[in-house]
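Hi U.,

Before I forget, here's the chain from the pilot set. I'm dumping it here mostly so it's searchable later in email.
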Amino acid sequence: MKDLLLLIYPALLFLLIFRRARLPEKGGGNAGFLCLEQTKMIQAAACVGIILHHMTQEISFYGENYRGPVTIFSFMGILFTSLFFFFSGYGLITSIYTREDYLRKFLYTRLPTVLIPFWVINALGVLLNTQVYGIHWDTAGIWERILGITLINSNGWFIIEIVILYLIFYSLFRLIRNRDIALALLCAATFALIVYSFHQGHDLPGAKVHWFRGEWWYNSTPMFILGLLFARFREKITGFFGKHYKVLIRLFAVLMVVTFFISIYFVLCWGYYREDSLARYSSTVTLISQITACLTFTVFVLLIHMKVAIGNRALKYMSALSRELFLIHGYFVSRIFTYVRMNNILRYAAVLACSIACSAVVSPCVRWLIRQTVRVLSRIAEHLSAFLRRAGGAVADAAESFEAATGIPLHLPSRDSRSDGQEWEKGKDGKKAKRLSGKSIAAGAAVCLAALACFALIRSLNTGREYRSEYQALQAAEVGDEVLWGHFEMDTSKMGKEHVPWIVVDKDDESVLLLSRYGIAGNSYHRKHEEVTWEDSDLRKVLNSEEYTGIFSRQEKEQMLETDGDLVTLLTAEQALEYFPTDEDRTMSITEAAKKQGVNVDRLSHEVVWFDQNYSYSWWWLRGAAGEKAITAPIIDLEGRLCPALRPVNKPSGAIRPAIRVRV
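Structure:
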């Protein structure tokens, strides 16, 4: 009964959309079809639908646990997101054809409207995590999350992608005079972005932080192309829709339902996470089914919109908050209320109420920041334009002198066509602008350089002292001892990176072989589901990238020796059996940071009884035999057993337990 009562929320969404909706007179249409006010209200309704989608995913574990009829919302997120992509593409082409100065002002008027809400709400997320939940990042980590380089808010993926599409649009239409050619190239570039994202694979489960990783980056993006083309050929398309409206509305009503349920079938029975030989085929078919569902849903919404004019006070108010609401609700869904015990009816109400209330507080501040940013950037653009005109005048003077002396025409602007640049020298009130003196600039620069030099000196002294202590302990260590070497993010609840503990697994007269005490991160062995050697695997490249070689300081790296050409590597199956004789010795727990990334964890379901239940155990990757191609890779499983061919190479949740060799 409680699950049935959850239908009140889809009913409220329906009421929000159609309350005070107006039907046309017989034979008429919606006079406000695709006007800015109407499209913003449609996006506001879609935003509420996305909140219901995320809430339903939360309570039903992505649709696997049936929670009554509302469970269907677990699969509807792509439909609502497709409307955002469609109206984004439609708005770009409509604006460039109706506003003469649209491109000239695009960068400093359009981009702030999406980036500033994104950055502000990311900053709020950093405050929430650091001040309330006690998670600490270093300064670089904080700025990465505020700017969106690392997505603290998984809903921010849409902002990243739409900004990239905006920049591609601007570049193409700025460089190419023929708008149809520019449009064709924009469609092609968007398709290329979809293909690129599709081949990037997925993040670890629960770690939606990397760009272009996961099907949500591409399954609704084709509707951006649909929006571009609809705007370009609007008259022809709407004419066709109007002529065959009765047939089309019935046809797409049926197609929308059929294609949507087909997409659900493929997601559940085929999906993007299949790990057999049909993995790539399964992903492709699932993607096609979801794109088809997005297409029929979007066209059906447009057909309804052609005849029905929506609009009420609540929907208009929500349209003013939609950007902030889209970004901010994720904190309430997956962070604030995740572990609060309450029934699902109250959970939906709490998330919706708090998200709307918080957006109502944040939105005026965001709008003020956008206005101020646009104003400042507009002035900078004006000054830059004046400067370029002055520079052009100087070039014209030089050209005239050259032509007079040599008689060779350069065909550059004459001095009559240039600006004298006086506007740059004076403000609007005619007074000369104030300038910083050279002494002030030099003094400020000297202070900054001195501060940086002091900071670098202190850091160098501390690093050197720490290195000497670590190296002395390493030289005295015996096989089985634990030593420290390098720093890595192992506990997100603490500030900065932690010392990495290593076990000495082998020692000779010249060097020691160290194996990480814990699984410090996770990754797939190879991104694609294909036969691969260790030498060509993606995991080998990852281990020797800056992410892992950056664990060590310059002094530490100088003492490290390569193993088969790699500074950081994995143990082979033979080494794992040699250095750890029993299954119990080979079991491995993972760090808290790795656990939060989504590395496979098992605490309870073990076949043996000697596990310490306070640790989070995981299976970990081993290095495949040199030159041997395989579609699986060797691992040590949860019980510490060697499994030479259990996991496919593209399994994403395996732990990384790096090995290094250090000169002693």
